[in-house]
Amino acid sequence: MSDPAPLDIAQASLTEKLAAHLMRPVDDETRQRARLHLLDWLGCVAGALKSEKAVRYARHLDHPEYWLGNILEMDDVHRSAILHPGPVIWPAALKDEADLTKVLHSAIIGYEAMICVGATFDSHHYSHYHPTATAGFFGAAVSRLHHHLGQDISLAGQYASAMGLAGTIAGGLWQTRHENDDAKQFHVAHAIETGEQISAFIAANIKGSRFILEGPQGLYAATCKNPKPMDFADQWRIHEVSFKPWGACRHAHPAIDAALELKAKTGSLSGEIFVESYADAITFCDRPDPQTVLEAKFSLQHALAVVAERGVPALSDFEPDAIKELTQARARVKVSEAADITSRYPEHYGARVTCGGETIELVDTLGDPERCMSENQIIGKARQLIAWGGLPDTEADRAIDLALKGDDSTSIQAMLKEWLS
Q1: pTM for the full model?
Q2: What is the DSSP string of 115-152?
């Protein structure tokens, strides 16, 4: 397998620059951070086990874990890229790899590629395309390729070529938001499986387009109006990824967080509740009359009704009985966009909640880097999800130990097979 001749950096494409950026050494702090995201993904998979979708996937699909990570809407999220790396990257990094240290490294560069590409997409792209899918092809491709090639700087050309192949077919349309289908999960699984195929093609010296992002008929030209510059940060960007404490769309979390603080301050949320947030939160989550679990998770009105009537949201608060019970409480919630909050987005996901003449405004929400969840909180979330999926406490202990302290990836793979059998 021959490597392309080195290029002058001024002549390099964005994917070539990104490939060189991925060759940096990984430090122990970043590997430990990756372990927390691995545990978070394992919790999301376990929590989805008793869902109707999980039953179908386990019955009919060879790798149901590819499909389960985002069902509960509790998967990790990068704010400015507006995507969920965990469900794409961990299955890609784990498959057929025994060494957990290598898995962690593969995941870290997968997160990096996915975020670096996804953060360049503009609002026009996000209005039509699911960035977890579009950028996920890039992340899965380099993560799988690391499994085959490692991190030799001389192989940066292969990583760039893999991203060229990923970009030429990247996509995933948001029509799934309007229908009760499996397309959102298919987006994730397709990115993982395509990444695996691409890594095999690169090993056979198949080449991808160098200028797949910025070229005249590349991904930006096809899907963006004003793509943003690519940021090559010194710190690995997995440190920028947020954990989600509640089982609802991330766009609803700032309002949930503000409402919880307001209720703690005033003692109750009675009467009308006014929610102001950024434009995308309204576009995705202004849903006053949800009928399904998924619609409830994408409803600001339902999320705030949960806080008002029940307190800290639990997964059971988005199930059919709760949807029915909270009908009147949802009617008290009025939502609108606030231009000042939109102006800070997507770098900051904020909200302002007013009730009874009192207001709480938050610029960032729980789980964001500015308001980190502690390791104990992340472990607690995993325990709750594993219990929600119907598994015993011993399985939570097992997952926590393997993810945070282990060095054997095959033990994690075996655990997943047991969970999904």
Answers
A1: 0.94
A2: HHHHTT--HHHHHHB-HHHHTHHHHHHHHHHHHHHTT-
